[in-house]
Write a structure and sequence with these properties.
alpha+beta, 5-stranded antiparallel sheet, 4-stranded antiparallel sheet, 11 helices
């Protein structure tokens, strides 16, 4: 019997179909973004007729935008790929006759595919394409902040194959490291190989044993290990709990368990880091013994993409210049937008949204993967290696919870991010940065418009108390963003990367508030 992943139940009753998508939301958002950009560029040029202001919406229409013409900076689109996901719980058994996963895009839409480039995204900076592992010699293998752990696991079961894997999108799996030969002891080889396509959300283990494929989530993996008695198992436990473990981290075996130097995020926006000495005992319990908090670099809490619920990783980069650290944080947040839009795609399908919304949410997943890779390239160009986001898996939310998240992260944060990206694409002195941000600005404008279209589509289905709570959450987000716009960005980021000054950021915010938020 094939194993199929079922959509979690929601607090909303079944429905046949919502009303069709309201018209006009897309055009309203584009006009608001154009006005906001014009306002900020007037500040940048010191006068509205200055040479840097020009016509902020002149140029040829961008294909596929479906609205007013785009800013010239919204035309070029560097392309690449990227894959992100996070940890999850659970485990299951796949009998030899199992096929593929049921979850995923609608028929005919396909699944986002890998570009074929080496994998670069996984929790804790641990990832690689499938390749042979070097002998461990009793020491965990780590190169370029990427751990190779599978060969150091010591399962209690006699398995022929063990892989440390991650589901990057529904039905698409990345093998981080592996040991043994898959299906080596299978009688029905074809059935066993088909079962290898099964996955769990986020990071998990897969084993084959007597021709049977088994999947193990982070908690179920403790049963597979029996006891956490190798450094690789202890590191894997921390990586699935939202910690970052560097290649040079101290790892010490004690009578109580493994003591490992690790760090985690301190808070959600422009966080500092909590450096910790963490004990992982044989039962898999994680205890912080000594901690030291280091404040993060504050460049005004620049909003980069949609932040998903369950984001628990550190956004900073490793080394590099001020520009490198900025783009490392940007890459982290853009990558975190991938599971955010994947969740929106699933929820829109669950609530039987209009096909145009489902299609555009699916397209946004691919956009954000590309944005994450572009930002990562910019970070590496300036000497910084981005951290990879860890996003805890969550079930489909109630319609009200969905609406609140969309109002805050989409209608406020992502809308401002779209205006800011267009400003950067116009003002950045570094031509490479300017070109790279051009395509991102256009995509973020579409994503912002999508958020407002979703909001307009949901609104008739909310009760008055629910609608009031959504408005209150959005108003609070607008107020919080106004405070963040009052923080001056470092000069390097304002010149080379084109980030708006305090005055320009406040003008962006005020213009969007007049035309869209109205708080």
């Amino acid at each position: 019997m094939a194993m199929r992943r079922q959509l979690p139940p929601t607090s909303q009753p079944p429905r046949s179909r919502f009303p069709a998508e309201p018209s006009g939301a897309r055009e309203i958002v584009y006009r608001a973004l154009r006005r906001s950009l014009a306002s900020s560029l007037c500040v940048a040029a010191a006068a509205c007729g200055g040479p840097d202001a020009g016509d902020p919406v002149a140029g040829e229409p961008r294909a596929g935008m479906g609205g007013p013409t785009a800013h010239p900076a919204m035309v070029a689109r560097p392309t690449s790929g990227g894959m992100i996901a996070g940890p999850s719980l659970g485990g299951m058994v796949a009998p030899p006759s199992a096929g593929g996963m049921a979850a995923g895009p609608p028929p005919g839409m396909g699944v986002p595919s890998s570009t074929g480039e080496p994998a670069t995204a996984e929790p804790g900076g641990d990832g690689q394409s499938m390749e042979a592992e070097a002998p461990d010699n009793g020491v965990p293998q780590c190169r370029s902040a990427r751990w190779r752990l599978a060969s150091g696991f010591s399962p209690e079961r006699d398995v022929s194959y063990l892989a440390d894997r991650m589901e990057v999108t529904a039905g698409e799996v990345q093998v981080l490291s592996e040991t043994g030969m898959p299906c080596a002891d299978a009688v029905a080889l074809d059935d066993c190989e088909r079962a290898l396509t099964l996955s769990l959300p986020g990071r998990h283990l897969l084993t084959t044993e007597d021709g049977q494929v088994r999947l193990w989530g982070p908690e179920a993996a403790l049963t597979l290990f029996g006891a956490v008695d190798t450094p690789e198992e202890a590191i894997w436990r921390l990586l699935t709990r939202g910690y970052t473990v560097g290649c040079d981290s101290r790892i010490e075996m004690t009578p109580q368990g493994f003591v490992i130097e690790a760090d985690r995020s301190d808070n959600r926006c422009m966080p500092g880091r909590v450096f910790a000495e963490v004990l992982v005992d044989p039962a898999g319990t994680v205890t912080e013994r000594v901690t030291n908090t280091e404040p993060g670099t504050d460049d005004g809490c620049v909003i980069d993409g949609r932040r998903p619920e369950g984001l628990c990783s550190v956004p900073g980069g490793h080394g590099g210049s001020e520009l490198g650290e900025h783009f490392a944080r940007m890459a982290h947040m853009e990558a975190a937008s991938v599971p955010a839009f994947a969740a929106i795609f699933t929820e829109l399908r669950s609530y039987r949204a209009p096909a145009s919304l489902i299609r555009d949410a699916y397209r946004a997943v691919r956009d954000e993967r590309r944005h994450a890779e572009i930002a990562a390239r910019l970070a590496r160009r300036h000497g910084s290696e981005p951290a990879v986001p860890v996003v805890m898996h969550r079930p489909v939310r109630s319609l009200e919870a969905f609406a609140i998240d969309n109002a805050v992260e989409g209608c406020v944060n992502e809308t401002y991010a779209a205006a800011q990206a267009a400003h950067q694409a116009s003002q950045a002195r570094d031509p490479f940065i300017r070109q790279a941000l051009a395509g991102i600005a256009a995509d973020e404008a579409r994503h912002a418009a999508l958020s407002w279209r979703i909001a307009a589509w949901i609104a008739p289905e909310l009760s008055r108390p629910q609608a009031a709570r959504v408005r209150a959450a959005q108003a609070a987000a607008v107020g919080k963003l106004a405070e963040e716009c009052g923080a001056e960005r470092p000069r390097t980021l304002r010149t080379a990367a084109g980030l708006p000054s305090v005055a320009a950021a406040q003008r962006l915010h005020a213009s969007l508030n007049r035309t869209l938020w109205r708080v």
